[in-house]
Model the fold of this input.
Amino acid sequence: MALYTIVPLEEVLSEEETATGRPFEMTMGGKRLLVAPEGPGQGRIMQLLSTDPADFLDPRWHPGNMIIWLKTD
Amino acid sequence: MRLQMRWRQEQAEAEERERPARRQRLTLQSLKQLGQMSPPPQIPSDIHCMVIIGQIEGHMLLPAKNKTTKYEHLIPQLVAIEQNPHIKGLLVILNTVGGDVEAGLAIAEMIESLSKATVSLVLGGGHSIGVPIATAADYSFIAATATMTIHPLRLSGMLIGVPQTYEYLEKMQDRVINFITGHSRITEERLRELMFKTGDLVRDVGTVLVGKDAVAEGLINDVGGVSSALRKLKELTSLKGLYRKNGGDE
Done:
């Protein structure tokens, strides 16, 4: 596998302990979000995955927002 | 799954100040009724924007501490942009340290083969595999302070110590070089010269090109920022519109 990057490979590939869980994708309000879980059923928005520039003006999807979702089990 | 959301008070207030009075009344009404804000009215944009940041993640998931661009996202988004008749142009903004060669070249080829107008803007950094992606657009800009690093490919992982490994590396490198020279004004000779230069980089061979250096070398079309990029995009979208109307095939 070829990683063509200026970052030294030992930097890229080293695993680190992260406080929050691994970010995952979810859909909310019709928009795709990358969310870092911070507990059961809640998390912080890390990224809005969209190409429409208007979506980025919507304050609901600002990175750093806490979001909560309720799961029905 | 029922979904609920919470707000930051400051962000909501900032939005409020910008809204005209009537919309403000409607918003307050919906806040009272539903307990949540209605979204701001969507003004449909015919220019879409794609940001390529951090490491370009390809066949392997990188550790969580890396900020990544997942190419498997960008590909369907590019297909959607190609298909959507309302989208006339794409602005690709790059601030990447490089990443997976195949994923990077895949994105570059997709951008290159879009029939819509494309403009790329390198902000911060457009290193390594970011170079082919920047040159793939119809027109490319680089911010005056942005840098692009040209350096040779390196293989990682388990390598077998035979001459064929070197030939493979050469082949991979040729893919990248051919793409760059095919989509910019730089010659292969000059690109190889920049790639193997010693003295510029501390831990590696290669060259760091800052803003206007990249333009001088013929890699990037022009120095500029977001306004120049959007202006160029508007110019290209109207040109492409004319071309298509006059029976040209894209």
User: Anything to note?
Assistant: Chain A touches chain B through 37 residues (CB under 8 Å).
